[in-house]
Structure formats: structure tokens, C-alpha cells
Amino acid sequence: MPDRPEVTAVEIARLAGVGRAAVSNWRRRHPDFPQPVGGTDASPAFALAEVESWLRSQGKIAELPVLERAWRQLETLRDPAGHPAAPLVPAGAFLLLLHREPEAWPALAAEPDTRLATALPRALAQAAARALGTDGAARLGLPSLLGSTYLDLVRLLAELARPAAAPAGPAAGPTAGPAADVPAGPAAAFERLLTRHAEANTRQLSPTPPEAAGLLAAVAGPALTVHGATALDPAAGLGAVLLALPSAASRYGQDLDPVVAALALLRLALHTPAADPGPLPLDLRAGDSLRADAHPGLTVDAVLCQPPYNERDWGHDELQYDSRWPAGQLPPRGESELAWVLHCLAHTRPGGLAALLLPPTVASRRAGRRVRAELLRSGALRAVIALPAGAAPPYGVPLHLWVLRRPAPGDDFRQVLLLDAAPPQAAGEGGRDRVDWPELRATVTASWQAFDEAAATGGPVPADRPGTHRVMAAIDLLDDETDLSPARHVPPAAPAGDAPALAHLRGRLTELLAGLAGPDAALPEAGPARQPGRPPAVVTVGELVRSGALEVVSSGPGAPARPAGHGAEGVPLLTDQDLITGNPPAAVTGPGDPGAPDAPVLTRAGDVLVPALGGGVARVVLPGGPLDGVALGRQLHLLRPDPALIDPEFLAGQLRSTALTRRAASHASTTARLDIRRVELPRLPPERQRVLGAAFARVAAFDTALHRAAALGRTLAQGLTDGLADGTLELPPGE
């Protein structure tokens, strides 16, 4: 391992808030740029201290953030042959000491390093034992001696954990979306470190986002808020689901990875109030939950989890006669998800609840038909809920939420709630940032709680709601396929419009098409150039920036986002897909402090917006329009011209030019990125720019109307098709 922190070109770009191409340019143009100290020719590594010094001397950063310094120190401690997250365990133990015994660190910090190297490990072990019990502390595997690099790290962590170092507003954790609220202090510091680890190890980690974890907790209901409530997550990962539960509940968990289990244990302890007496009701262990259950015989009030998917080697051969399989129904080798369902059900007390996030194929694969049928016959399966794509990883798949209750003696309830909470979406409209979590949570919990109350009290079950949910007798689902997919059973909603609504759509389409019918009036008249072949003088966007005629802001990953709607407050956040499709922003970001250094840049009238990936799209921000006053999301360029020198419509029209964007594009294996500062614009006087800008604006308006008419036409055609197909519409006599 390196003896000092190192950074790659990508990480340097992140520190300076620029693209990787800018770092490559610095290396070529500045002979004093630090030389590589490691890595490979394709991905060299540089000494962090040298890079920080150079960036500060060039005025590109004022000071390296504490988080970056702490993260680099952690990377220095990582053993290339060991677990990539191993250094986070003692780091988390130190933050736990700050959280529960804040008075201990000032006294330790005054000690010389020779004494601190042994005194601090003892303090960490003792604090962990008081918080987690002797067994819990032993599972952390804390070192008995800390070297100088670790001592430098803990000093940085102490600085990072101070409230002043915490980011203003929401802080996102590794399983957190942008809206997850994390308190300032040691817990927030640990969340930020876990976030960096998750970003650096996306292939190893697929954490459950906090919104999905919160949905599982909401389905479990108020039963977990009472004293003595118990919950289990047998596939705990970093503990996102258990973190969504009340800290007063006794929480159990298991994960295959011992280091991840230790991090989850620390995370839960850090989010438990420091005043709660220890040992805390937390028990997270390592091991294979299916092959080596760490909690044999344990039954709890609720088992909640998102298990691993598509596992072929889950223990099928070793577990053929396991007591967890009801009526001897061993899940098929290719149905590992059903094995997890039965494992969760076995850990649920009679009358308790189990809820799992599963792939949609589990509801319909023929191999699992017998197990699904047994779950229906026993009355254990109570609900199958289809969620929209983007609710949880894998984000491109619309997952299902299965809810089960272990039947208590005398429980003869045999009905199933089938809920389709995944509305149909147009191409490109799905994704993690587009899930309306407040609405989704309200829909799921209201339907489930009404159904579950009817099951408990013997009252009437909720009436069917076309397009949303249906309650079916279990026997009616038992056929040759036993397909439990909600989309197959929930009656369709009313068509996109009844006859009056479709007539209104037809009228709107007629108006749009009438406006497009005369392109000669809508489009500017243009003839051949009088002097073809004589290229005009050009100036690059970079030169205009240096002269002060133009300001350029590149958003990079953009501000953190959360879906808009239903009480979500904040500034509308525009993404690159919103800009490309012409849709208004579908997400928001917290307003934060407008004067803060990291406050998002807001658009204003006259700005020109361009996506960083691809080309051919550039839109002018109009006063009071949907793009006015929004924050920049991911992969966007904002160009703010001086209107006395550059006409915004002229600038946008030039940026939509095919040849211009092709010349300024840099290509990777699968994408083209617009190098905005290389874009060349013709040198024209402002009067001529305004004439061309007006023409560009007319062409853009025609293109927008054309796309709007196409979308409206598709909606009308689908509504007519659906209405005629299901009999809600009929043709006039004689047709």
C-alpha cells in the first residue's frame, strides 16, 4: 500500500470541480504539474499533497475539504489484498467513541503519539463493548495498535465530525437518496465516508435506498413502535432497512460479508441516541443466512429485506430437507428468491409480517409455481405490489414488494391484495430520480393498511380500484401458472380519456396541425448564400469566456435531487434528460443557503442550456418559462451571455448546428461529450446576431410544435385504441 495518500486524474477533477479533460490539459500545458508517483500509464496516480499544493497555487481550490483528506487517508490505509472497506471499521469505531463518549477524545488527543497508539485502541474497544456488548465489539475486529497514519486519520475524523463540518441541509448516505436527513456530528461523518465508499465500489455494493427501506418499514406498520418490538433483516448489507426502523426496537441482522456486517452494526449504533443505555438492542452477524443461519430459532415481529437475486449456488443440494420449506416444497435451484421468502417467513412469529423486495419474474416463473401455490393455500401470502422502475436496485427493473403474514392458529383468511403502483411510463421517463416517493408511499400504505385491517377484523376488504388494486380469493389464483403479477389481474384503468376527453384531445391536435400546415408562414424563408465557400471569422467559447462576454457553468453530477410533488419542497432541478425531451423539471433540490459556496446555480432569463453528452439540443431560458429559476442537474452546461455582445437565440441556434457540435465533440466508446469551450462561433455584429437569432427561434418553435403534435397524436391514438378495444367507446351507426 502507498505510504501517503494518492489521487487519480478522475479524483483530481472531482476535487477541482472540472472534467477529466481539463486535468489532461493541465498536465500538458503546465510543466510544474505534479509528476505521477504510482498507478499505470493509462491511470497514473499522483501524491495528494503535491496536487493540493499545485491546485491552491493556481487558485483552482481554496482548501482541500476535510472529507477528501480523510478519504485519501483511508485509501492509504487500504490493503490491496484485503477488503476495500476494512479501514472504515476502526474509523467508525472512533466516530462511535465521539458519539457516545465525547469527553474521552480531548483527553486522549493531548497524549503524545507513542502513548496514543496504544491508549486509543483500548478506548475504542471499551467504548464498543459498552455500546454493543462484548460479542458485538468482538465482531468489529478492532486493532490493538494504531500507526501514525491511523492517528492522522482520527484527527481528521474528529474535525469532520464537528457540526460546523457537516453539510448544510440533507446529507446522502450510501443507501440514502439525496433527501435523507442525517444529523450533524459523528453519524453524518460516517454517512459521508460510506457514501464515498459506495461511489468507489458501485459494482460491489447495491444498497437499498432509504426511500425503499422506509416503504418496507411503513408496511410493517406501528407494531414496531411498541416497547419490545423485534425485527430482522437476513440480508442486511449496510443496514439501510434496519436503520429505517425505530431505534427502540430490537434489531437483528446478518450479512455474508463480515466487514459489511461490522459497518452496518456501527452505522446503526451511530444513529441510535447517545443517551440510550448500552448494550444497545442490536445484533448483526456475519454468515450465509440460508446455509448458516446466525439466528436459529429466532422469531420476530417483522422480517424486512431486499435479498440477493438470481443466485444459482444458494444451497439447494445441502438444504433439501430443511424445516423452513413448508409441506416439503423445496424451492427449485433457479428460485433462490423463493428460498429467501420461506427463510423470512420461518423467522416470523405467528401473526407477524414479512416484506421483501423481489424481481417481478418471481411472481410468474413456472419453476416456482408449486411454492407460490403453497404460500396461497396456507394464507401466508397477503399482497403482491408492483413498484415503478427506479425504486431500488437494479434501478431499471420494476420490482415487486411481497407482503406475508405467518398464519396464527385459527387464521383462515385466504385473500390476496394485488396492487399495481407502477404507472405506465413513456420511454425515457423512468429512473431513480423520477419516482414520486410521497405519492408511492401513500398509495401503497393506504391500500395495504385498509386490506390488512379487514383481514384482522373480519370487515369488508377494499373495493377493487381499476388501474390500481384488486383483492382476489387465493383459490382464484391457483391455476396451471399461479401467476401473481398484479398487471395480469388488476382491471385496467379508464382509457386515457372518455369520449369528451378524446374529443378535446382531437381539437387540440387539430389546432397544432393547422399551425404546422403552413410551414412557409412558420419557418423563415432562406435561400442560397451569396458568398458560399467564404468561411466567416470565428471565436471559441473559451475565448469569449476569457474576454468576459460569456460565462460558462458546467454542472458535472449536478445538485442532489429528489422527486417533486406531494409536499416535496425545494428548487426545481433540471436534468439532461429533461432538457433533451423538452419536459419541465420532474425533481427538486433543497434550497439550502443561497450564499453557500456549494449552493446550486439557478438559471435566469437569457441563459442558454446545453446537455454535456450528445449534441443538437440547446434551449434559451425565457422569462417566467419552465426553465427560469431552476437548478442545474447532472451533465448540463449553462452559458450566460452578455446580451449587449451576444444574442442568446443566436448562440442557441449555433449550438444546435450539426457541424459545430461535431467539431467540438470528444468521443468515448459509447458516448460523445461536448467540449463546450472548444465550440467555435462566427464573429458577427450584435445586429446581425439578432436577425439570425429571430430566425433560429422560429425554427426552434416549429420543431417544438412538431414534437408536441406527435406526442399528442400518440396519446389520442392510444386512447381511441383502448376505448374501442374494451368497449367504452363505440363507432357511430353505419361504420
UniProtKB/TrEMBL annotation:
Record protein name field: Type II restriction endonuclease subunit M
Domain DNA methylase adenine-specific: 189-423
GO biological process: DNA restriction-modification system
Highest taxon of the lineage: Bacteria
Record-level Gene Ontology MF annotations: DNA binding; endonuclease activity; N-methyltransferase activity
SUPFAM superfamilies per record: S-adenosyl-L-methionine-dependent methyltransferases
PANTHER family cross-referenced by the UniProt entry: TYPE I RESTRICTION ENZYME HINDI METHYLASE SUBUNIT (PTHR42998:SF1), TYPE I RESTRICTION ENZYME HINDVIIP M PROTEIN-RELATED (PTHR42998)
Keyword entries, A-Z: DNA-binding, Endonuclease, Hydrolase, Nuclease, Restriction system
Organism whose genome encodes this protein: Kitasatospora indigofera
Listed InterPro entries: DNA_methylase_A-5, Restrct_endonuc_typeI_TRD_sf, SAM-dependent_MTases_sf, Type-I_RE_MTase_Subunit
